[in-house]
Amino acid sequence: MAIAGVKRAIQLLVLFLSPLILSAYFSNHPSVNVPTSWQNVYNSDGWQFNDNTHVRPILALDLNGQPSFGFGFLRNGTTNTFYLVTLKIAIIPNSSFSNYGPPPVVLWSANPNRPVEDNATLELTVNGTLVLTDADGTPVWSANTSGAFVTGMNLSLGGNLKLVNGSGSVVWQSYSFPTNTWLPEQRLRIGRNLTASVSMSNLSSGMFYLSITRHGINAYIKSVPPQRYKTLRFNANNATYLGFGIGSLTLSGNYVTYNQIEKGDFQFMRMEPDGHLNVYQLIDGYEETLYSDLLKDEHYGDCAYPTVCGNYGVCFEGQCSCAGGGSSIYFRQLNATAASFGCREVTPLSCPDAQLHTFLEVMNVTCFNFAPQLSNIDAESCRRECLKNCSCKAAMFRYQDNTSIGTCYLPTQIFSLMAIRKEVFNYNALAFIKVQRSTHKKSKSSLVSVLVPSILAPLLCFAFFISVCYHYVMQKGRKNIEGKQRENSGDESSIHLFNEMKKFSFEDLSNATQEFGVKLGGGGFGDVFEGMLGDGTRVAVKRLGSHVGQGRKEFLAEVKTIGSIHHFNLVRLVGYCAERSNRLLVYEFMCNGSLDKWIFNQDQEQTLNWATRKKIIHGIAEGLKYLHVHCNPNIIHFDIKPQNILLDEKFNVKISDFGLAKLISRDQSHVTTVAKGTPGYMAPEFIRDRKFSAKIDVYSFGILILEIICGRKNRDSSQVDYLIDMVKVKAEEGQLSDLVDDRNEDMQCHKEEAVKLLRIGISCLQTDHHKRPSVSQVIHVLEGSMDVEPITDYSFLSMFPMDSPLEANRAISAPLIASVLSGPR
């Protein structure tokens, strides 16, 4: 420490002797007033760090005359894209002042998933809205101040960016919207997440996230559904406190606060790209030093992290190998010189070839997230259960003394595995890893290889002569027959729908989906499979029915609809395949799947908080507004329901499944068609008269709002009454707050606001469609610029009865067989 003190003194002396030189690179400018704007352009006052990181500052704050915190555009040196960030600066520049020393610590980013380019603009508008716009004018991010009166922006010690009003009160702050870093004195609301970045230079959302709960913090890896790999609970004797030496986490009300026990060196906590939760100190103000890894398992160590050895890798005392070891014929290392990169299957699993499935048995190996699904079962039965289900990737079995009784877990995705010793963990483990047998046959004997050709050669020549004659006689007739068959079969091979869209071959998509081996879900017009394109892009591939005519109309409708429109809240169509009867649609992959598995989830820790539900409702409204207003001709979706609302890693909404969509010109107020949609979401005028307008989507949206806020389905087999009937009773009693989802504490804390959204949903359900608001009006109400018209008579709140004749004739999309779909139906 004495040496460090001398070093510090020398560096401070250099700073003192060179204040004019330093000011060229840093000036104390921590606040601004409205209105003002900044453009992301090169200037000589930028900060260059020794890892080639470059910062174009907007605000800067010094501590004791030394540069400390900054806010501005950051480029990592490997690309020409920028993140808008707050950061902690190493306070000691090098002696020549040509650049700063250690790279800065990024504390928060406004746009981690959408970096901007040169000439992007940040504007603090006259009405107090902070907006980031890319160089082409595309809005990228904004701070939601909800119409509050904002007079300025400032950067405080600790790196908190604030928008304040005339009295100095905080209207918005970056501390309330963390990315991957948690700072001392920063309070996080229950239900808030910390999401790791892809890497230290790529700030977009990675595979891991931390969830703040009332009982502690949970660490998850993103999968479908997310898998928890570690829980840190508050102290058993003090259910509101979790200490870790130099700091602590404390629960108070609906917030958890990070407290620094000893003031001094700068301290912070970061969710790392590899799933670690590390606490750091900047020793002497500039050297980043790891203090503790809070998620490290006391028994398994680093082996408990889901990706420590990559997929199908086995971790033992920090060393990695492929499942089955180096002699395995089923797995190979992805990188021969780096075992931690993981392993690949020599022959990928294929559901159509399930008869070739077998198991690689590995002793004393288990998985990080072992969650028993079957108890009091023997090892062989556990193995057979996995063999029955193609989506099962392994049978993980734990037992005490013999394999005749134990517990069984059937994971659908394999990350890193862990080797165990019974003397340490007090149990035995068996891993039956599902593998695909090779179809290669053994070579024939040399005698057979000689005799068979000699016998077959003359026969083949004779057969060839006969076939030429036959072909000559039948050629013309066959062409006529094939032409007629093609007309009748709906041959898709000649369809070229959009030149700007990528057209895939059936073989391409078969390979991308491992021969359609990982099924995500299914609907009325086909099944959806997970896939990966050659460039590593994950996709969801919808394979429509292969029977003659099945799904052809829906295929054309969906491609022509979603293929010609582009909006942030609509799922993106990557491409399509149309080869004869093979019709497939390729969509962007949505890692958080569909909305139904979140709002109807019985796991209390996986329910959505208030802010996320409100964000989802607003996103659905924005997507519908684009379809109803901005598209020409206008588009009516016809099947708005939770299964058709997909969610990306940030829970941004992507409306999907346009197989039932219909285009209408703007001068058509009402049109008649056959009834189609899903029972429970169909508007009464559509069921009764088969007439429709954009208001039928508004009705479905109203049902959806009720389901999102209440956390239950409008109708399922376990319910006697429709949710809409329960809403009627509670609305008439003035007790709508009783319906707010009680499985989520954060929802209970926002009951008053939730009831306002319930009233918006109710207004969308009025039987007289003329009284229903348009989706544009709904958005105005959500944004607070318009009020919902009061309703005194709730008699319209009941499910319209289905008339028998119509029931027999309508075309209703079949219910999904799975609600964990990460992609469009």
From TrEMBL:
GO terms for molecular function: ATP binding; carbohydrate binding; protein serine/threonine kinase activity. It is a single-pass type I membrane protein. Its EC number is 2.7.11.1. GO terms for cellular component: membrane. It is found in: Membrane. Residues 46-176 form the Bulb-type lectin domain. ATP binds at residue 542. Belongs to the protein kinase superfamily. Ser/Thr protein kinase family. This is Receptor-like serine/threonine-protein kinase. It comes from Vitis rotundifolia (Muscadine grape).
